[in-house]
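Researcher: Structure prediction, please.
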Amino acid sequence: RGTVQYLEDCARQAGLETRFLYLEEIGMGVGGVLTDLQERVIQQAFKLYPLEWMLRDEFGPLLRKGREQWIEPLWKTILSNKGILPLLWRWHRGHPNLLPAWFAGEVEKPGWRLAEEMGSQWRGFVSKPLFSREGANITLYADRDGQQTLASEAGEYGDEPRIWQACAPLPRFGDDHTLIGSWIVGDSAAGIGLREDNGPITKDTSRFIPHFIAD
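Model: Predicted structure follows.
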């Protein structure tokens, strides 16, 4: 809620009219449009509620009709699904910006396969659910047979299908494992944020430092 209200405040400062709604307060109007509590048609909306949850909800089929603009847009379900990682590796094998990745079940011993492909760059492998956020249900393995666990986190995504991916350890500065997140708008760089965690898996308790914001 705090994040949504912060962005709502930014929107108001930019001269936009806003209304705050809880998801369960959204209704359906004539013709399948989404409405607020005053029956006004929703034309644009920002939310933090996951897109895959929205698609599974009762009104999920309405999202495909595209009557309103969601921030983030519906196509982000493709980029936020880790199933895109094995597909990218399949289509662009060996690309320097990609890590080897497969769907669970595609390879019998992912650690051995990764070690063969990466050679001296072998650093272990990771098991990830297709839909997982902030480190939930992520497991890091140090050995080829998946018996030596480096780190593992619990969460609510344990029943999701999984992928295997080569491990690219985060750089360490003292006791901090540091992750850089970057954003683009169109083709232009628009922001950078740093997350630091005490462990190798970046969790929802990690420390966050935003980039500088200027007019």
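Model: The longest helix spans residues 2-13.
Researcher: Thanks, that helps.
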